[in-house]
Structures are given as C-alpha cells and as structure tokens.
Amino acid sequence: MTTRDTLLYLDGVTVTFDGFRALNALSLVLEQGEMRAVIGPNGAGKTTMMDVITGRTRPDTGRVVFGRDTDLTRLDEPAIAALGIGRKFQKPTVFEPHTVWDNLLLALAGDRRPRFTLWARQSAEERTRIEAILATIRLADHARRRAGDLSHGQKQWLEIGMLLAQEPQLLLVDEPVAGMTDAETEQTAELLREINRSRSVVVVEHDMAFVRALGVRVTVLHEGAVLSEGSIDHVSADPRVVEVYLGR
Amino acid sequence: MTLLRVLLLLLVLSPFVARAGDDPIADLAGNYDDIRHAVDALSVSGNARAEPVIAALQNGALMVAADRSLWIREGDAMLDARSGAPGSPNGPLKPVRLNNAVRRAIEAAMGNLTLFSADPARRLKAAQALFAQPDPAALPTLDRALAKESVAGVRRLLQQAQAAAVLAGADAPIPDRLAAIVVLRARGDLAASNLLAALAGQPPEVAAAAAEGVAAIARAQKIWALAQGVFYGISLGSVLLLAASGLAITFGVMGVINMAHGEMVMLGAYTTFVVQQAVGAWLPGLAAAGVLIAIPLAFIVSGAVGIAIERLLISFLYGRPLETLLATWGLSLGLQQAVRSLFGASNRDVSTPGWMSGAAQWGGVTITFNRLYIIIFAAFVLAALMAVLRATPLGLQMRAVTQNRRMAAAMGIRTPWIDALTFGLGSGVAGMAGVALSQIDNVSPNLGQGYIIDSFMVVVFGGVGNLWGTLVSALTLGIVNKFLEPVAGAVLGKIFVLVLLILFIQRKPRGLFPLKGRAVEA
Amino acid sequence: MASLRTWLRGAALGAAALAALSLPGAARAQDTIKVGILHSLSGTMAISETTLKDVMLMLIDEQNRKGGLLGKKLEPVVVDPASNWPLFAEKARELLSVDKVAAVFGCWTSVSRKSVLPVFEELDGILFYPVQYEGEESSRNVFYTGAAPNQQAIPAVDYLMNEEGVKRWVLAGTDYVYPRTTNKILEAYLKTKGVADADIMINYTPFGHSDWQNIVAQIKKFGSAGKKTAVVSTINGDANVPFYKELGNQGIKATDIPVVAFSVGEEELAGIDTKPLIGHLAAWNYFESVDVPSNKAFIDEWHGFTKKPNRTTNDPMEAHYIGFNMWVKAVEKAGTTQPDKVIDAMIGVTVPNLTGGYAAMMPNHHITKPVLIGEVQGDGQFNVVWQTPGTVVAQEWSPYLEGSRDLIADWRKPLSCGNFNVKTGKCGGASK
Amino acid sequence: MSGRATMVCLVLVLGGAAVMAALNLATPAASALHVPAYAVSLAGKYLCYAMLAVAVDLVWGFAGILSLGHAAFFALGGYAMGMYLMRQIGTRGVYGNAVLPDFMVFLNWKSLPWYWYGFDHPAFAVAMVLLVPGVLALVFGWLAFRSRVGGVYLSIITQALTYALLLAFFRNDMGFGGNNGLTDFKDMFSIPLHLDSTRDGLLLATAVLLAAELLVARHVVTSRFGKVLIAVRDSESRTRFLGYRPESYKLFVFVLSAVMAGVGGALYVPQVGIINPGEFAPANSIEAVIWVAVGGRGTLVGAVLGAVLVNLGKTFFTATLPDLWLFALGALFILVTLLLPGGLLGLGRRRPRAAPVTQAPEPAE
Fold first, then answer.
1. D77 CA to chain A: closest CA distance, Å?
2. Residue A20 at interface with chain B, using a CB cutoff of 8 Å
3. Which residues of C touch B440 (CB under 8 A)?
4. Least C-beta-crowded within 10 Å: which of A124, D164, D290, D324?
5. B410 lies in which domain range?
6. Residues 151-210 of D with CB under 8 A from C
C-alpha cells in the first residue's frame, strides 16, 4: 500500500489509557506535500494522534511509518524531530525568558548536541535565516523582546516561526488560530498555505471557517478512528459526521 | 550452684531451721544475700505470713524502718510484716531493695506458694514461674500439685516445670531424666532448648538425648523463623504504612510536597503524651485507655495544624511544588524547635498500657501485642481512609477537585475549602500514626525526621495517588527489609533497600501501580 | 540587568558583618577570668549537652560567690556549636583566640572532641572533657574527667561474671567509635577469662535504630543455649527506648537476660517508662541516688539553681564538677591561669567526688574513679548494687588492644608524652 | 544575569580574600586592623559553601533540577581530600603507623583497604576529588534523566541518595572512620596546616577557585548551551520536540555541578580540619538550596551572596541566640519562597523578571 509519494502512514494504531481507548485501530495516509485538516469532537483522539506521531506516546499496537520505511514508534521525540517532523502545540509554548531572536536561534536546524552548543557562536548564515523568518512571521520589530511579553497571537506566530526554523518536512499544527482575531486567522491561513508550498502540514482545528478557508482534504476522527474523509463539503454532508457533531 | 546447695541444705534442715527461731522475716532487712536466703527459707517454711510478705517484697511494698523492723504498706496503712496487724512504725521507712538474684528467688518462691491457689490462672502463673526458675527443691511440691491438678493447660505446664526441676538437679535417676527430656522436647520453644542445652555435661545417654532434643527444636524453630520474619516484616510494613498513609493523601492525591509531614506525626505523638499525662492526673481510672483517647485527639490536633498550614502557607504555593518543598521544610524546622521549646529537648515518657505489652506465643512465633495492635490499627486507618475517599461526599469532592479543579469549582464545590480539608485529613492521619509510633519509638522533637524519607519512598514506590499501591509498597519494603537485616545487618540492609528503591524509581518513575493517562504525564 | 546599587548594598552589608566578626572584643575588661563552655545547645546533642552547660554556669556562679579565683571573678563564655562537628572546631578557635578563655569545659561526642583537639594543641588551650569515652588518646591539652573503658566496662563485666554467673555475652552497640572500641576491649578481656568465641555475639546498629524486632529475637535465641546470658549495651541515646520496649514485649526480663548499659543514665531514663526495665543494669562512676552528704548538697544546689526540683543529675555532670574543682585548685597552686603552668599543676590534684571518695588527676590526664553498678528502679533512678572497693585508675591505652598494648601516657617531665612506646622507648608522635 | 554583577562579585571575592589574608599576615595582633586567623578560616569556609551554592544554582536555577543531595558531592570531594590528608599524617599519628590511619589501628585493621591506595599521591587525590563526585553524578544522572525522572521525584531520590551515603559512611566497616570521620590532619602538599600563612593561602586558593567556578558557570549559562538549559527548565517537552535531548543537557550540567561541589568540599576539609558523615545529612543539602533561594535563584552572584549571608547569620545567631536559630532558618525558608521568589537580587530587578520562575515549570499539555 505504501506508495512512493506517501510521507506518513498510520497503520492500525491503538492507544489505551487505563482501559479507555484513545485511538482505536486508527489508519491514515498522508501524501508528500499534502496539507490535511483533522477535525473531530473533544476526545476524538486528535491530540493523542499527534502524540503518537511525535513519539510522546507509544501505541499499544500498530505502526507509524514516516517516509519510506522509518517506524516512528521506535524513536523518541528528539529523534523524530531530527527526522523533520515539527509540532506546534495547542497552547503556544515559547521559551518565555528568552528573546524572540533567541527562540528562533534555538529552533534553527543544526547540531543539537551539548558539546556543540557549549561553544557555538552565531554565524552570519544563522543571522540571515533568523532575519528572514522574522520577516515571514511579521515579528522583525520585536526581535529583542522577551517572548513572554508578546501578545497571544504573536506567540502563536513565533511558534510557527520556530517550526519554520526547524526546516521540517512535516508540520503538525494543533489549533493554530484558537484565540486569534479574524484578521490574524486569515493571515495564519495564508501563512500555512505558504508553508505548504514546500512542506506537508497536518492541521488540527475546531474552527470550521478556518478549515474551509484552507480548502484542503479533511479527516474526521471519532472515538479514536476515522469517521469520514474527503473535502470539507463531502464530510459536512456525511450524515454520520452530522450526527457526531450535532446529535446525541 | 551456691543457691542450689543452700536450698538442698535448707530442705534437709528445714524442720530445724523453723524451730531454731532463726527468723527469716527478720533477715529481709539484711543485705541481698540475706534477703535471698530468707526468701528461699520462707517459701518452704509453711509460715502463713510467707505469701503476703514475699508478695509485698515483689511489689516494693515491704518497708524497713531504722530499727530494722519490717512493715507492709497497704494503701495508707502500715501492717507489721510479721503479724499482719496494723501499726505505726517509728521513724521513716525505706523500701527493701532487690537485685536480680533476689528477684529470681522471689519468682520461684511465689511459684511455690501459689501453686495451690484456687484460681487456675494463678496456678498457671505459678507453674510458669517454677518453669522459669527450675529448682529441684520444689519437686515434692510439684508432685503434690500435679496429683491435684485437673485443668489440662496448667497440668501440662506443671509437667514441664517438673521436668525442668528434675533436670536441674543432680540426683534424679537417668530414666526420669530421659522422660523429662521428652517432655521438654515436646514443648519445643527456646526456653526448653535452653534447658536442654545446659545438659551437655550430663551422662552420655542423657546428653545425647538432650542434644537431639536441641537439634529437633532448632529444626522446628527454623521453619517458624520464616513465619516470624514475615510477622516482623508486616509489622515494620504497617509502621511504614501508617507513617506514609497521610502522605499518600497530601502528596499522592493533592501533589503537595509536605516536608513537615513528619512533624504532623510528631505532634500526634506529643498529643499522646499530653493525653496520658492529663488522664493520669485527672482520670486515673482511664489510664489504660489513654492511648485510645489520644487517637481522635491526635487526629484533631494534627488535622487542625494541617488545615492552618494549608490556608496560611501552601495555598499560596499551588503549582510551585519545589517551592512548597522548601517552605514546608522551613516549617518543619520551626515546628521542631517550637516543640523543643515547649516540651524540652529530651524524650518524653509515653508508657505502654498493660493490654499492649507482652506477647503471645503462636507455635514458634512470638507475636508482640504492641506490634499486633499497630498492624490492626494500620489496617483500620487504611480502610477508613479508603472509605472516606470513596464513600463520603467529602471524598467525592476531593477527587473531583484533584481531577479537575476548574470544573469542580464551576459545579459549586468550594475548592479552597476542599483543599484545606484534604490536607487536614492527610495531616490528621499522620497524627494518628504518631499515636502508634509513640508506643514503639522515642517521643522527641526529632521523631518525624526519622520517617520522612521513608514515607516519601513508600508513596513514590507504590505509585502516587494510589492507596492500594501504598499498602503493597509499605508491606513489601517492610518484609524485604526484615529479611535482608539478618543477612546484611541493619545498616547495610537499609542501604540496600534505599539503593534498590532509587534504581527502581529510575526504571519505573511512576512506581509499582502507576496511574496511566494523559493527565498525569506532565 | 541587575541593579548594581542593590548588589553593592548587599555586599556592603556582608563586608560590615565580616568586619564585625573579625574584630576581637578589644575593649573587653581584663579583670575577670574567662571560662569557655563549649556544649551544643541546639541540634541532636542538645538533649544531653544543655545540662552540662547549666551545671558549669552553676559551678562558676558558686565559685564567684566564694570570692572568685585569684581575686578575680570568673566569667562564663557560652557558645553553641549546634551539634555540628566542624562548628565545634570553629567555636573552639573563637573561644581561645578571640575570647582568650583560661580553660574550656566542653564536648560530648568523640567526634566533637576529635574535631577540637588540633585547635587546643595548636593554640595551647585547656579542655576538660566530661564524658565516658573509648580511650586511645591522651593529649597534653585535654583533661579527661569521664571514664576510660576500664573504668566502666570491665568492672561491669566482672560484676556480671561473678555475681550473676554470666557465661554468654551479647555485645550490642551503636555503630560508632566508642562501642566499637569498648567491644573490642571487652572481647579481648572476655577471651582472657576463657570465654569462647561462640559465646560472644557482637551486633552493631545505626544511630537512632528503632526497629529491634530481629535483633531482640536473635538475642533471645542466643540466650537459649543453656548458659546464663547477658547483654552489654553500648547502644546510644535515642535507640535505647525502642530497644528496651522490644525487650519487654518479647518477654525478656532482667532476671532472664540482664542488660548492662554504659550510655543509659538518669537523663535517658527520664524518657522511658522504667517499670518494665526494673533490674536491668547500668555502670557509671556516679548515680544520682548515691546517698552521701556531698551528693545531696550538690543535688539541692542544682535544683535551686535550675529552679526545677525534678531535674536529674548524672555522671557527666559529676565529671564537670570534679574537673572544675581540679582546675580551680590547680590555678590556685600555679598562681596563674597561664595554660602551661596550669597543665603542669594539674597532675596530682585531688578533689572530693560526689560518691563519698576522692578523685585524683593522674599523669595520663585521666582521673581516678570508683565504678558503680546500678539497677534500674521503677522511679527512673538507679539503685547501686555493687561498687569497686576503691577507685580505678584509667587505662587510656588499653592493654587489650593490639595497637595500644605498649603505649603509656605520662605528661610529667621529663617524659611528657601522650603515647610513649615502652617497647621502642620512643614517644610516638602526637607530643609537643 | 549581567556581566557587571559577576565582575563585581569576582572583585569582591578575590579582593576581600586578598585583603583579609594580607591583614592577617602583615598587621600585629594588637592592631585594630588585624584579622585573626579564626576569621580567615571562617571566610574560607563561607567561600567553600559559596562554591556549593553556585553548583546548586547551576542545576536548580538554570536547569530546574532541584537536587536535595548536592551536599553529598561536596562531602565526597571532602572525603577524597580527607583521605589524602590522612595519608599525609604518616608516622605522626598517635600509634606511629606509617600506613594505617589511627582509626584503623585501634579497630584492628590489618592492612589498608584497596580503595585507600593511591591517596598518598597528591595528583591522584586531586583527580579523585574531581572524579568521585563526577562519576557518581554521571551514573545517577544518566539513570535518572534517561528515564525522565524529574521534578519532585528527582528531588526525593536525590535525598534518598545522600541519605544512603550518610548511612554508609556512618558504618565503621566501610573504612572511612565511621561517625568520627577523618581528622587530625597535619599538613597538605607538605605545608603544615596550622600555620597562619597556610590558612591565608587556603583562603586565597578558595577565592581563586570560586572565581574560576563562577567564570565557568557563567560561560555555561550564557552560551547557547545555557539558553537550551533554560528552555529545558521552563519547558522540557518543547525542547524535545525541537530536537534537543534534555537528558544530555541535564546530565552535563549535573556532572559539572557535582564536580564543582566536590572541589568546594575538598577545600572545605583542610580549612575546618574534619570531614565526617554528618556532611551527608539531607538537611545540609536542603540548606544549600535555601542559600541559593535567598540570594536569587538563577543568578550565580545571588548564590554566592546567599551562601555568605545565611552562614554569617548562622555564625552570629548560634553564638548569641542559639534557641532562635532554627526559628530564624525556618522562617527564612518560608518567607523567601512566599515573598521573595527572586531572592535578594530579585529585589532590585524589574518585577516581571521574577514572574516566570514562579510559574509551573512544565507547560500544560
């Protein structure tokens, strides 16, 4: 089933917490260069799925294949990050005592080992990269501010900037527009589309307007498994999806 | 041996001694040797005053005046030792002092004198005393007693005492001695083994039978030792459980690192001391129940202090576990010093009530009562805690608050109040543990310090937030510790356990019974 | 950016405090003789040592009422080394070099004495050490007024052997140097008396050991081999209460297996319900219950001074009483408080003890002592059941230990040596 | 953390030590300016504590590892030095035994245990001062950080570690002198210890090494490594998703810190003249943490300031108001955590700076 173009393949992944099945034989395929929106009610398993992909949670059964043949379930978070999978959390988590600049510096792709960072000096190349990202995320004027002093939206952007700095192949973005103004939401959608030109993206989101604005393939999760998949119009017409979201 | 010879002599001469006017009662005013001989003489003299006088001597009620006249103190009255008639001694009185040799003589004498009491319990005690102080001189008495005895338990003990007395003498015929060895071997405990082992120098066949008896007892004891070890382990485990169960609430359920937990235990122990003093002063009739009265009071005292600590200190530090650790450590220093200023630095004397002292013998296993009661108490405390957490509205609210504080608040639960109560409950349980610990450990300001590290290890090893885990963990640690101790020594055993625990926690940071789920993976 | 101002303020504070520390009390009056008291008033040892501080204050007060010493008043200087051994050395240095005290009365544990010893030797001070200890030491600057092992342990064992007919021995102790040494000495001594290896059981437990179930059971088992058995206990302080409680509960009475303790005195008994312990023994050089006029006067004065009519007295207090009186006498004899002269004058000084006899300072800087065996009574006191006919001279270097068999101490000139080897004829090393 | 504060601190430490040493040597005892030997030793002791405090601050302030067992590393360094000093006594011990220390002679040890070999060589001893704490920290840290034991769990097991070591060193059978520890030292590197000039030299050496330690620590925390470390402290899982291995960072800084503490202990021993198991007491480790908290967690200068101030207070209070000392110390713990989360140095700083430290160290998931 694995084709040349598949980037990520979840194969029958099951996760249980104390008898509760957070993921139930979940299977999902993501193509190279694709952007995918994942929606679903609370407890559908969206975040757990992200946890499994990024190595935070180990599934009870099932495989997660990245690229050609890398099984992610055997790797830990830093190894998976090094493979080129970046993750943005639901609640923005930036390093608050550090400046915006330093946050990006830490995120820049490069040697992560202590023996390097202990003696590392900032190179001209790194400087240009950071400046470029700052421009992209519209924080050039705030480079020297403490990240902790930024507004909520700015933190979200900084975090996306940090993801970019990692130069990942695949971005996992958890509710990127929660708490944003309409204008910011629109800018974020634009930013994600821009990112998608060179990388694959998985967006978990509640905001249907935003998902619609992205205009990408949608996967609906329910009780840890895929309920429906297709365009936003297709899934919103699916009676099962309607029932899950509206009915009881 | 001297004692023996004297006794034999006395036995032979007793009719003369009694008649000679050589008054043994008067000798009780002499030195230790005089007293000892006098007791021996009195016990076989047939003197009617022998029993009350020796009993008084045993209880410290026999007094001597400056003119060497002897008196028995009975309440406020003074009785003349010789006549038993009330009188008034001239001059100040001093109690007659004893040493261990005298005490042994008294024990044997009381055995002799009460062997024919109408009360089977007293006869049993007498038989026990005679077994403990075997004396061939008592053989005729024993024979008479055996002939009359009808209660099976007393009879068996009398036979054992008889056997012991036969073996203690030098002139019993060999078949008698062999029969006696069989009786003792059947008794099968360390005391019997002790008596048999002393026969090494006897004629070959006796010595051989005795050696075989010793070996048989040793074999049986080895098996019993296993059971005994388990009892020790459970008993240590129950102490650990008591010390840790309060922490299982404050740390396990609430996540508060309370370094002053040990001081809550210490406060409970001091409450016991105060209660005992108060009961002793005002309600002497209830003295034996002092410990029981202290249990609820210790719960209230430590619980109240706990609530105060939560409101005044910890509530400002939620979400900052490491700061809580430091602040409560500071608090523990303050509490220790406060208790030291209040009660003094030295240990306080908390006495063990009669019903908690002593031991029962179950085969080869000695079950000490204080430990047994502590095991029962620990089980009771754990059961009560579980009941509170599971079956009461308070428990429900506690669990609601710890699982989802905001939700609980939204549902109208007064979360600060629940926090305080939960912490109070944990502290109160620690206070009750203090009551138990006052029975086996020093009541000193440092009491809590000795248990704090162990308590944390128990809770972490068992799995935070899981009372069953705490139980299993405490018992495991107790038993492992007690089985390591004879092999490795007390210190090395403890170090081993600590190192094993450190390694275990590094392999399984969430303990034996981890709570799974996303919520706890922070 | 940290504010430099704030920082400097803090630094200035620190510097000021350091400066205050480093300035000795230059302006202090010199018309008194200062006496240093170096006992822990806080920490784990406060339990025992606070009493000794109080008794020193009482003795100094009493001497001042008698008109002081050499026409000057005595002035006590009390410091708190807080049961912290390095702090003992620090405070000793402070007493000697800042306060310039004429003599120091202090220390309880061996480790505290070891910690201050180099300080006293370096600054040529005088230390009176009042606690029974393991011996194996004799310093020119220290006067040992507590018992050496032969002034406590060996007579106690003799008593058990002769009076109680004990044939089998349990040597149980806390794992530190005093029990270790004492048990080594006793083991060697028992062997000279023909006790077999199999009849000696040695057991060590940590400080504050509280779960004695196993060990008491072992003792019980050991005691069931058909021979009269006794326990010689060098168990320290806090571990005693649970030990005796366990003995009582497992039904071991003094009439079966007596325990003779070297570290349990009146203070310790105050924290124990003694009724189950009646008949167990302790060996000391003094008991509060000793019925002689000098002791009665001492106890009365103690109760008056502390205003607590129930406060007990104990053996180390008597040691300080003797030590202080000896020092007073030696100062009077030397006519000065200058340490060198006083040290020389000390040898041979004889003062009354509190048990009706006399204590003499011997050339090995230890004193002669009677040894008393007391039985625990129900009222928390001891009843003396036996005592040595005369006083016993301390063997600071035990003849029962391999390393010290050939050593003697004699601080009289011309030998002046704390560890003279009689075999090689040389002074070992620690001499000055 | 400003460079300026560090410079001021370095100047004060080095200058202060030099002035004290000079005044001690050059002025007559009667002079008002004279610094008595006793004060020199005391200052040296404080600086050793400051070294321990900097070590604690490095792991707690910058990596969020609250070690309640750091005094164990301090004590191990001390023991390594003590063993060397013990061997230096040679035949000057009371028994005159050239090989065995006194405590072994009178407990009838026949030969030197193997782990005492080599300690007669100063170079070996110095190596051990660094290696013993370092290796223990490496093994312990490797196990702990690899299995992601963090937060309070780590605190509890570090406390258990030092407690286990305390019990072990109390045992006479271990061959480290049991409760009495190691004492009665005569000289160090062939220089008699009791001379005033030696004391001054030790004070200066301590000051220099403390300064060196501060500079090393400063380099570590201001480098990119240090930025990662702070990131780990505030949001460990986030750094992991960025591709960093927090366990390597923590392990490196933990080992470095343990070695620093060990050096402090090694200098402490010749200045106080004794090392014994009491130094392993869990209370000592916790006290070291409070020095850091008082001075200002996450500022190296604060650690030095806190260590010196609290110990000055201790010296002062235990002499004047012994009963109050524990109350004062206890109150210090409570007040500093409640009211001064940034420590003394936090007082002079902009308010918001203190805030992040007070928040939960881990982000909500």
1. 25
2. yes
3. 210-211, 242, 245-246
4. A124
5. 225-466
6. 167, 170-172, 178-181, 183-185, 194
pLDDT for the residue D317: 79
Q: Is residue B86 part of a domain?
A: yes
Q: Report if residue B521 sits inside a domain.
A: no
CA-nearest residue of chain D to A53?
A: D241
Residue in this structure with the two tokens 């380099």, named with its chain if needed: D219
B3 — pLDDT class (breaks 50, 70, 90):
low
User: Which helix or strand (DSSP H or E) is residue B511 part of?
Assistant: none
225-244 in chain C: CB under 8 A from chain B = 225-227, 238, 241-242
Q: Where are the domains of chain C?
A: 153-261
CB D167 within 8 A of CB C206: yes
- Read off the pLDDT of residues C222-281 as tens digits, 9 standing for 90 and up: 988 878 899 999 998 778 888 988 888 888 888 889 999 998 888 888 877 788 888 899
Which of D61-75, D85-99, D154-168 bottoms out in mean pLDDT, i.e. has the lowest?
D85-99
Chain segment C94-144, per-residue pLDDT in tens: 899 888 999 999 999 888 998 899 899 989 999 999 999 988 888 999 999
Q: Which chain B residues have any C-beta within 8 angstroms of a chain D C-beta? A: 257, 313, 316-317, 319-327, 329-338, 341, 453, 456-457, 460, 491-492, 494-495, 498-499, 501-503, 505-509, 518, 521-522
* Average pLDDT score over residue span D356-364: 32
Interaxial angle between packed helices B321-343 and D282-295, expressed in degrees from 0 to 180 and rounded to the nearest 10: 120
- Alpha-carbon torsion angle C232, C237, C239, C241, nearest 10: 90
In-domain check, residue B129 = no
Token reading at D170: 């109390």
> Nearest-CA distance from C352 to chain D in Å?
32
> Which of C85, C136, C180 is nearest residue D172 as measured by Cβ atoms?
C180
ipTM: 0.84
Contact D333 B505 (CB under 8 A): no
What DSSP state is assigned to residue A89? Answer: -
Return residues 296-355 of C near D (CB < 8 Å).
none
Chain D: residue whose CA lies nearest to B495: D164
What is the C-alpha to C-alpha distance for residues A116 and C413, in angstroms, rounded to an integer?
70
Closest CA to D189 of D269, D84, D65: D84
Q: Provide the angle, in degrees to the nearest 10, between the axes of the packed helices D37-63 and C4-22.
A: 150
Give the homologous superfamily in CATH for domain C153-261. Answer: Response regulator (3.40.50.2300)
Q: How many domains does chain B have?
A: 2
Q: Among all chains, which residue has been given the structure tokens 């500071």?
A: B330
Query: Which residues does residue C317 pair with via DSSP β-bridges, in sequence order?
Result: none
Among D165, D202, D186, D139, which residue's Cα sits nearest to residue D282?
D165
Q: Take residue A179 and report the two structure tokens written for it.
A: 């708490």
Last residue of a domain, one of B81, B114, B147: B114
The SS3 of residue A118 is: coil
Q: Tokens for C318?
A: 């008597």
CB D181 within 8 A of CB D100: no
Q: What percent of chain D has pLDDT over 70?
A: 94
CB distance C295 to C359 below 8 Å: no
Chain B nearest C-alpha distance from A19 (Å): 9
B15-24, B488-497, C310-319 — most confident range: C310-319
pLDDT tens track for B153-172: 888 888 888 888 888 877 77
Read off the pLDDT of residues B223-240 as tens digits, 9 standing for 90 and up: 888 888 899 999 999 999
Determine whether A230 is exposed, middle or buried from the number of CB atoms within 10 Å of its CB (0-12, 13-18, 19+): middle
Q: Are B165 and B136 in contact (CB under 8 A)?
A: yes
Q: Domain map of chain D by residue range?
A: 3-358
Rounded CA gap, C374 and C143, in Å? 26
- Check if the beta carbon of residue B273 is closer than 8 Å to that of residue B254: no
